[in-house]
Amino acid sequence: MSPTKRGQRAGKEDRWHRPARRGEQVNYPADQMDGPVWCTDPKHGKSPMVCTVRHGKGKRWLARWVDHDRQERTKSFDKSADAQRHIDAMTTAMNTGTYADPQRSAVTFGVVAEAWLAAKRANRAPKTVAGYRGLLDVVVLPKWKDERLRDIDHERLQTWVTWLATDPAARQQPKRLKDAKDAEHAMDAKDAKDAEWTGLSPARVIHAYQVVRQVLAYAIRAKYLAVNPTDSIELPRKAQGKDLALTHNQVRQLANESGDMGPMVRFLAYTGLRFGECIALRVSDVDTVRRRILVSKSITHVQRRGHLEGDTKTHQRRAVPILTTALAAELVELVTDRDPTEYLFLGADGGAMTLGRFRWQFDKAVAKLGLTGVTPHTLRHTAGSLALSEGASVVTVQKLLGHVNATTTMNVYSHKLPDDFDKLSAAMDRATSTES
Q1: 364: domain range?
Q2: How many Å apart are CA 304 and CA 372, to the nearest integer?
Q3: Which of 5, 131, 320, 328 to pair with 281, CA 20 to 30 A apart?
Q4: CATH number of the domain that 352 lies in?
Q5: Tens of pLDDT along 351-377?
Q6: Any residues with CB less than 8 A from the CB of 397 and at least 6 apart, and which?
Q7: Binning pLDDT at 50, 70 and 90, where does residue 197 land?
Q8: Regarding beta strands 72-77 and 175-176, do their DSSP bridges make them parallel or antiparallel, or are they unpaired?
């Protein structure tokens, strides 16, 4: 049988007392007679009230309210003022749309996390969903899976985030710091041995926090919670390192040392494509007449599902220029007399190139040339850096790299932009000289 639906309202009830009914015979406790008796405790109020069967048992005041679903909810309090404050808070929350049913907030974090992840599958790439799944299983759920939402507060979340960032126990495989100087500055190290270890990386901690925040935001939308306890959490600071970029000469040397992967090295360095976008290209995507590359797909590796082809990271199609005549000539030779549906860069089995196959030769070339820290992504950063150094505008580089907006390009490549301070100084000198 479904619960009775009621009209929306709120109020408080004295569970220990009731008014005398008309014509009712009420006795005093000293009379020692059966039937209702007056309350004679001066602490319970001045007005004469009849004792109920609950008199003196449990909490006196009961706050009642009917929510948007027309279900009656209650909560007991010792003091009338506390019950009234709770009723006022519930009424305000319902009027402002921030109300969450206290009974619904008893659901566990793990249940809501699975519902959130199921919703994400509708509009997120498989690799993104797999990343969420990994963070939940390895970092988040071991701590919060069986916790009721109403028991998760700001203080507990902050303690957990700090623990992830600083405690070696947060790592399944502890990471040794790179040198003695790093160990000396390790947070919360009790001795030299402890200082050799650290918690999760700042990026990993921030990603885990973002997943928890999104799950709890989903809980608010689903009316499980009224507020998000992740607001204003203090997070570890990521190092603001600058990505490496190669010179034209280094690109040439790296391509020459990469053997069969040489053409792909040059292609990535002078088009700025993401690696997944590059290996998803078909022969038909290369327009050697207009010197353009049509980018519309990307291939990513998803754990337990293999390589999957889908939209680009930004879900946009774009045309990328072939920036050098040498690369244009190389591509003409690469696509001549080939099936338009073939992948432009073939893997071992005639399918798409894989990151593992590419890096087998690429990494050997990097090591031989002594290019510390260079990865396939370095080639994409090289394309943007070289374009800016040759005078390209931020908007042009944004379009080249497929950034959603120019702000991303500015943030990544701000150190490559000319500051024009010398020109400004000269102009100020001229202006002050004229006035004098």
Answers
A1: 248-416
A2: 31
A3: 131
A4: 1.10.443.10
A5: 899 999 999 999 999 999 999 989 999
A6: 384, 387, 388, 409, 413
A7: low
A8: unpaired
